[in-house]
Amino acid sequence: MKYFPVFQSLALLAAMLPSVASAQAPESVIVVEAYSGKILIAGNAAARRPIASLTKIATAIVTVDWATATGTDLGTTMITAPDTITLVGGPNPMNLQPGDQLTLRDALYSALLGSDNLAALVIADHVGREINTRRGKTGDPVATFVGEMNQLAKALGMSQTHFANPHGLDRPDAKAYSTAADVARLSVYAMKKNAINFIVRQKERQVSVSSAAGKRGYRVKNTNELVGEPGILGLKTGTTNAAGPCVSICMDREPLVRLKPDGTKGATPRRLIVVVLNNPDRFNRARGLIGQGWEVYDPWLASGAPVENREREILSLPTPQ
């Protein structure tokens, strides 16, 4: 796994059109067609703000990319809860205690579906420790992991993003922020990962934790209310006092099959990424934006997908190496 910085301009994102109504100014939203990068709707999309547990999208990407690069099996690799989980605070749905063990895959399920902050920290501790070992370094493994998250952000052109921890909880001594546009970039890349794509579309998942007292089970329910609706592949929710209710949604439609001039058929894949930050009715807001997004995309595609100003109309979507 190696991320190379990619610098892309975001200067014009604040002026992207069409915009949302002024009454919705406190929120940030963006709707992007993932394959073309076409910006369909944007409002306040370049404003820096906390993104709560949408942070865990980056946590999952770094983990999956690391596992792929090292040949690590997510389903059989056991990870151990460090003593530092007692410092995370907040809900502890699996009742994780220092020394408890679970598979890397089950930890990802709990982090992505249940937004489990402790599971995210356990993942970061394990992967960061492994990265340190392979590099012959010592130090805080979670800090190493967060460093990889920020390298990922640079590689994706997320120039308005800084991660401070793997879970997204607000911390007064460590400011973290992103934008709706940067979360869209992150979401597009995440949904290219088969492991993440599969996990986030599940409505619930049974996971297990092992301790000295034996094995215990826990059923994780997806916090994303849109999962199960037609075309929705899911992605991630997040809420903190600073960030407000947030959600990133991925929706697919059947590829559009058209006849080419040479008589052959061509298929155009269609996928929307919808990001809503700081809206108390985030799920209904996302539903509405999905419909509006397709209403903009369909005639744009039918007219030949014209682009007059690429910086204004297309969200840059670099692919990290």
Please describe the structure with a list of short key phrases separated by commas or semicolons.
Beta-lactamase, two-stranded antiparallel ribbon, 9 strands, alpha+beta, 22% strand, 321 residues, 32% helix, five-stranded antiparallel beta sheet
Q: What is the number of E strands?
A: 9
CATH architecture: 3-Layer(aba) Sandwich
Give the class from helix and strand content and strand pairing. Answer: alpha+beta
Described by the principal axes of the CA atoms, the overall outline is globular
- Range of strand content: 15-25%
Strand order of the largest sheet: 2-1-9-8-7
Task: Explain the layout of strands and helices.
Elements: E1 28-33, E2 39-43, H1 55-70, E3 78-80, E4 101-103, H2 104-112, H3 117-135, H4 141-155, H5 180-190, H6 194-200, E5 204-211, E6 214-221, E7 232-240, E8 244-259, E9 265-277, H7 282-302, H8 310-313
Antiparallel strand pairs: 1-2, 1-9, 3-4, 5-6, 7-8, 8-9
Helix pairs in contact: 1-3, 1-4, 1-5, 2-3, 3-4
